[in-house]
Write a sequence for this structure.
């Protein structure tokens, strides 16, 4: 695909030029693949993913250009202008890549109000962050921006729904992200659960780093916020020792409002059958890059956004970070502010 698109773009004239083009694409792609496989699922593999996605964006630009050419040249009978069309294709490609990077590094704040049928003396504002994936491509600058955005909202409590680090603490330690993460504050505390990327052999180091930054890691634990709301935190599905939601609720008084925090929205049927008022999770990234954004909607009960099932309000955030690749297309980095209030 890449060879065909570049061939159309530069129109090599000689056999030698064509051979060089084919060889160059072959060598670059296979070098990236071999480099990535030397550290499968690690940062080198992420480089291979970046190379692949950038080529995927070339396909998107090619398809958009083809559609525009069809309308202009066939339906409106305009004279073909190859140079203009190639300029348009390059412009579209640059725009797609720029939009994907902008969406990844320019977070927005969303709000949700949840009214429950349990007594609550005053509304509670909860800031939700997930999937920060702190690592080589997402670090101090992004933490600083996150702190600024959250401080501006003045939440009562801040919760982080897993995938705090991108597989390990190497970049976190090397760039001293600890100093920035320490600045995350909320009157009722900052709490987190671990996600699947936090369990790739570094779970103890990540837990230690998180708690040294003043963030309480809730590993199948619960805490009573302001003597009025229970926050229950469960470890990720990958943890074979994690408790069931029913077992965790035996730790709390379900006559009070209950917030259930975990990384994945994989237990919606289990949780909705219990007296849980608000379930917060992430993991999906909302698909992160089109067309996965559509596929996730088709294949999962809730890949992004809010949905009420029985008496439980579910919220799945697309996350604040970027995961293994610094692109978002069809989604955007985000923070949620949820206002929990009583309707009785």
């Amino acid at each position: 695909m890449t060879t065909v698109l570049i061939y159309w773009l530069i129109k090599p004239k000689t056999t030698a030029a064509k051979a060089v083009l084919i060889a160059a694409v072959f060598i670059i792609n296979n070098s990236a693949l071999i480099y990535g496989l030397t550290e499968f699922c690690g940062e080198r593999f992420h480089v291979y993913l970046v190379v692949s996605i950038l080529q995927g964006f070339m396909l998107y630009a090619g398809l958009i250009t083809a559609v525009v050419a069809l309308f202009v040249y066939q339906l409106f009978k305009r004279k073909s202008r190859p140079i203009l069309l190639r300029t348009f294709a390059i412009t579209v490609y640059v725009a797609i890549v720029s939009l994907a990077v902008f969406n990844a590094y320019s977070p927005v704040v969303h709000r949700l109000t949840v009214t429950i049928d349990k007594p609550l003396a005053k509304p509670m504002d909860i800031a939700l962050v997930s999937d920060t994936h702190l690592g080589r491509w997402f670090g101090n600058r992004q933490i600083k921006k996150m702190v600024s955005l959250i401080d501006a909202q003045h939440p009562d409590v801040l919760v982080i729904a897993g995938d705090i680090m991108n597989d390990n603490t190497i970049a976190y330690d090397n760039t001293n992200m600890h100093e920035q993460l320490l600045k995350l504050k909320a009157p009722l505390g900052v709490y987190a659960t671990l996600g699947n990327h936090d369990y790739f052999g570094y779970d103890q180091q990540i837990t230690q780093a998180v708690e040294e930054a003043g963030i309480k890691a809730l590993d199948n634990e619960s805490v009573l916020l302001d003597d009025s709301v229970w926050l229950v935190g469960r470890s990720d599905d990958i943890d074979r020792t994690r408790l069931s939601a029913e077992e965790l609720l035996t730790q709390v008084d379900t006559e009070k409002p209950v917030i259930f925090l975990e990384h994945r929205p994989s237990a919606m049927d289990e949780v909705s059958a219990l007296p849980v008022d608000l379930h917060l999770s992430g993991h999906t990234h909302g698909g992160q890059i089109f067309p996965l954004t559509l596929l996730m909607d088709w294949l999962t009960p809730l890949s992004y956004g809010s949905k009420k099932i029985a008496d439980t309000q579910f919220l799945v955030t697309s996350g604040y970070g970027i995961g293994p690749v610094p692109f978002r297309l069809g989604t955007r980095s985000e923070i949620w502010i949820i206002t929990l209030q009583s309707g009785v």
About this structure: Residues 168 and 202 are 6 Å apart (CA to CA). The longest strand covers residues 108-116.
